[in-house]
Amino acid sequence: MTTPQRLLFVQVKKPPSVSVVFVSYNSGAVLPRAIASVPDKTQVVVVDNASPEGTGWADGAGRPFDLVPMARNMGFGAACNAGARAARGDYVLFLNPDAVLEADAISALLRAVKRYGDPAIFMPAIIGENGRPMRKEGSILEPVPRKRRLKADEIVGDYCTRFVHGAAFLMERRAFLALGGFDEAIFLYHEDDDLALRARGQGIPIIVVADAKVTHAGGNSSTPSWRQTFRVNRFKKQSERYVRAKYGAAKGTGAEVLYLAGGCVLSLLMLDIHRLMIRSGKIAGLFDVIPPTPPASSSRAP
Fold it and tell me: Which class for 222: exposed (0-12), middle (13-18), buried (19 or more C-beta within 10 A)?
């Protein structure tokens, strides 16, 4: 008698899926172009941070996306976290609204995931509209002098770095949420520095993937205005003070106030209102109350 043939069932793992998350605050002028650069079958999540200009731009997006409206402007990090929670993909790719994915960028990032494994933070090679690379080699806590920064011809292939460039990076969704996501006490700027420090503290590498490219305009995520310039720089200084305090690197304010005040006077003499808004915004941020920081032991990283 012939032995019955056994059927062998081979479990085939489906390719990992990606959700692209954008945070919008008056970003309607640039978002449709950014959304259009995302492959058709990839989920797009747009978190609108209670934009005063509204979301009328959505009709011209040219493709479906999931809109997550925030009741009020909670800041960049909190909106990113909301986008990650709304994402359905195995991986989440955070992308600034003034950034554009080049062809095959997501596929190149996923090939790097397969090559290097998880958990890790994967960043594309970010290129400015002028064609120059936009690398992040330091932070307010680890400044890197210009003469020590890598030149374009010194980089060949993928490489590890110490800090995340928040304009574009990919991470496994569960790993991002398990890390705590972005610190929501940071309203705007330096939340990527804090994320990098916490990731490094848990042995999670940060890898730049040379074949994955993103073009980033920089500074065009919101409609520009003098008022907006003042507000952004005020938030930036608040965030700097919070991150410094969190990692035990707080600085005195007296000398900085004098330096910025001198810059304000010079800006007035030169009738440079833009620079005046930058420096006066930072002065305001120096005197704002910042949230309490967590215990130092939970914030240290190598």
Answer: buried
